[in-house]
Amino acid sequence: LDFAILLISLGAILAEAIPQLAFLRPLRALRVLRLGKSIRSFRLLLLTLVFAAPAFFNIVFMMYIVMYVFAMVGMVLMGGITPVGDCRVSQHANFDSIWIAMETLFRFATGDGWSCFYLDAVTAVEESRYPAGVSVPYTEWIHVYFVLYMSLMLLIVSVFVAIIIRYYNLQSQMLVSSTDIQNFARLWVFFDRRNTNYIRVEK
User: Fold this and answer.
1) Is the dihedral of CA 185, 189, 195, 201 positive or negative?
2) Distance between CA 177 and CA 62 in Å, rounded?
């Protein structure tokens, strides 16, 4: 943690000295991490995020796979729908390309405007708002697509939260936490300044 704070401070100093590195100035806001040295609960939360990082990567990777598969299926079902704007199918939210489809699905995963897009996709199928020569899918497929995707995203987010709670409880219940170990190491260095791995006991 101390090393990370040192790097952040160095980046902020360089940003002040070199105009080309001005984009590093917002890093100064991360100095709030120093609170972890004095506030035990905040430090506990930071350690929870650190130890749960491998599990987070697994969840994010699984989410990416699910989103990629649904993006490909969405391009088959809803690719080419004429955009109308607003929270409905638009130039910023559609399934015309894999990149925009992934971005659209990520927005749906956060719960932003997915129901509006869903209703407009159903309307587009009913009104055949597709380019000429493109086969129009059944509305049932659109219903199944959105219900299945949102259910999977809800499940993945729930697992994500459960992992955080589990690791937080483990950190809280440890008889000797990593914070205690670091405090012990700091005191040992204080009494063993010559790094002899021994502390002299005096009466």
Assistant:
1) negative
2) 30
